[in-house]
Amino acid sequence: MKGVAFDLDGVITDTAKFHFEAWSKLALEKFDLELPAEFESQLKGISRIESLERILAFGKLSGKYTPAQVAELADEKNTYYVAAISKLTQADILPGISQLLADLKAQQVKLSLASASKNAPMILEKLGLLTYFDAIVDPSKLKAGKPAPDIFIEAAKAVGLAPSECVGLEDASAGVAAIKAAGMVAVAIGDKEELAQADTVVSSTADLNYDLLVTSYQQAQG
Ligand code: G6P
Ligand code: MG
């Protein structure tokens, strides 16, 4: 295992609730639409514009807005989201993650970030974790989002490695699908059934550690 590619939201810090709150506010204000709670997990790993398209489809509003209006609505959601995450600090790092990053660094494992979020660099900065990462993939440069493999292929390439030399960490099923499609070993955090495609699933980030990643990598590579 020469590299680890991290998802951000739900792996390093828990921002899913802020995304959901921002989308809920926008949907209520602009479309008089109440989003069901399931949307919180359904939008994990899904890009900003695609999330909006799913919300519009749910409200039977697909095609009702011009691309410029869609972009404006997405910007508005982002304004709500950025306001909500402005107060993030080191205290918002999920359990086990700081230790894991420090141990991986000490073992000279290359670290890259494979997040669909355009806010990722700002969030890492607020958490005080920016300097751990050797590369951060820019999601706006990718052809296809998760579950397509592009972001994890890029995450390996950006640190000079092949996907087969890396472990990918994810909490979303679209993300696990992307890791596997890229040819990486997948370690997932969350529900065993929902994330069954992963090579290893743990229920909390507190269960993650350097040895677990190495063991998962070795077992998966046979
Ligand atoms: C992550 C989150 C998604 C979010 C996406 C884009 O993948 O899990 O819920 O839509 O990033 O985030 P952004 O900050 O660019 O709107
Ligand atoms: Mg995630």
Q: Which structural class matches the secondary elements?
A: alpha/beta
Listed once per kind, the bound small molecules are:
6-O-phosphono-alpha-D-glucopyranose, magnesium ion
Radius of gyration: 17 Å
Number of helices: 9
Compressed to H and E, one letter per element, the order equals EHHHHHEHEHEHEEH
Strand order of the largest sheet: 3-2-1-4-5-6
Largest sheet: 6 strands, parallel
Beta-strand fraction estimate: 5-15%
Helix content: 40-55%
Mean pLDDT: 96
Characterize the overall form. Answer: globular
| Poorly predicted sequence stretches spanning 5 or more consecutive residues | none
Q: Could you tell me how far the N terminus lies from the C terminus, measured between alpha carbons in angstroms?
A: 13 Å
- Number of E-state strands: 6
Protein name: Beta-phosphoglucomutase glucose-1-phosphate phosphodismutase
Cofactor: Mg(2+)
Binding site for Mg(2+): 7, 9, 170-171
Pfam families: Hydrolase
